[in-house]
Amino acid sequence: MPSCGRAPSRVVNWRLEHEGDNVSNIEAARRAIEAEITHTKEGLAYYQQRVESLQNMLDSLGFANGGADSGGRKAAPAIENKPAKRGRPRKSVDAPKSLPRTGGDFWAGLVTQAPQFGPDILSAAVAKLGFEPTAAQRKALANRLGPALAALVKSGKIADSGKGRLHRYFKP
């Protein structure tokens, strides 16, 4: 099997660079191009022979000229009309125990002048709700607490001190 992986420009350039000094560049280029043509014709003959061989194999299996039955995917079976699956049920907007909005000054109003830890502010938020939240609601409230306190510190409405578990928040 001939090697057909080389690009013509590489062959021409290699032959031009390595040609002797006694032959002109035009003559070297002509020979390089002729060699490339010969190489390509050999590759073409190999692949034509390969196509014929594969075609004979298909013919011996009962398929002719790559017709409609020659390999590929079969048509998908007809799909019966099924009712669509329902997604998750929507949460009711009017649920009596849903968490209130905690934007605006909700969190800033819970921070006092005395330094407080995050869990203390969360407890104050739970007390301000007016009902005992479920574990999921308490977790949702805790997830709102961190970013809200960070935004309040960044805006300068509250101050903080300490790091990690010793992080405390207070009004300046």
In short:
This protein is mainly α and 172 residues long.
Primary descriptors:
mainly alpha, three-stranded antiparallel sheet
Describe the protein.
The chain is mainly alpha-helical and 172 residues long. The protein is built from 4 helices and 3 strands. A 3-stranded antiparallel beta sheet has the order 1-3-2. The longest helix has 37 residues. The chain starts with 7 loop residues before the first helix and ends with a strand. The mean pLDDT is 78.
Query: Structural class, please?
Result: mainly alpha
N-to-C CA distance: 83 Å
Spatial arrangement of strands, main beta sheet: 1-3-2
| H/E element order | HHEHHEE
The percent of residues in helical segments reads 40-55%
Q: Major sheet, described briefly? A: 3 strands, antiparallel
Write down how many β-strands occur, each being a DSSP E stretch of 2 or more residues.
3
Instruction: List the quaternary state of the chains.
Output: single chain
Mean of residue pLDDT?
78
Estimate the global geometry from the Cα principal axes: elongated
What is the CA-based Rg, rounded? 39 Å
How many individual helices?
Answer: 4
Strand content: under 5%
Low-pLDDT parts are none
